[in-house]
Design brief:
Elements lengths: L7 E4 L5 E4 L1 H32 L9 H5 E6 L4 E6 L4 H8 L9 H8 L1 H12 L21
Antiparallel strand pairs: 1-2, 3-4
Helix pairs in contact: 1-4, 1-5
Length: about 150
């Protein structure tokens, strides 16, 4: 979906014309929030991968790049970040098992980065007056370093 027309004009029978740019403003807010979520996800993914590389046997392993992913969903306007299904260093170490202690890499990284997340969101949402910063590409993490 492209950018809607910036101005919609409505005229009534008395000759009064109403000009509305609500559609463009709503679109701009939605796309700026998606762009902010995408940048937050990239930042969190880099930090999570950095922490996962410190684990035993994972320093030179490429699997963590493919298994640590994020999804910025357009319809729901939210961010999901996590590990692919079935990775022992994802699920088991995040929540712990009866033989493995809980590490909580994902959760701890998000809580440590709350101030940076707020700064990124504020930077994008302050750009509502300048809608030229919108990138319309879909947001899904790739394989490899970003």
């Amino acid at each position: 979906m492209g950018l809607p027309k910036p101005v919609t004009k409505y005229s009534n029978k008395n000759g009064v014309t109403y000009i509305s740019n609500v559609d463009a403003a709503q679109y701009t807010i939605k796309e700026l929030s998606r762009a902010a979520l995408r940048d937050v996800a990239k930042m969190l993914r880099k930090k999570i991968i950095f922490k996962l590389k410190k684990l035993q046997g994972m320093k030179k392993n490429r699997r963590i790049f493919k298994s640590t992913q994020y999804w910025v969903r357009k319809r729901e306007a939210d961010l999901q970040i996590g590990f692919k299904h079935g990775t022992w260093y994802g699920f088991d170490q995040e929540l712990g098992t009866n033989k493995m202690k809980k590490l909580g890499v994902l959760r701890d990284t998000v809580f440590e980065s709350l101030r940076e997340i707020q700064q990124i969101e504020a930077q994008y949402l302050s750009g509502i007056a300048n809608p030229g910063v919108i990138d319309e590409s879909e947001a899904k993490s790739g394989d490899g370093a970003e």
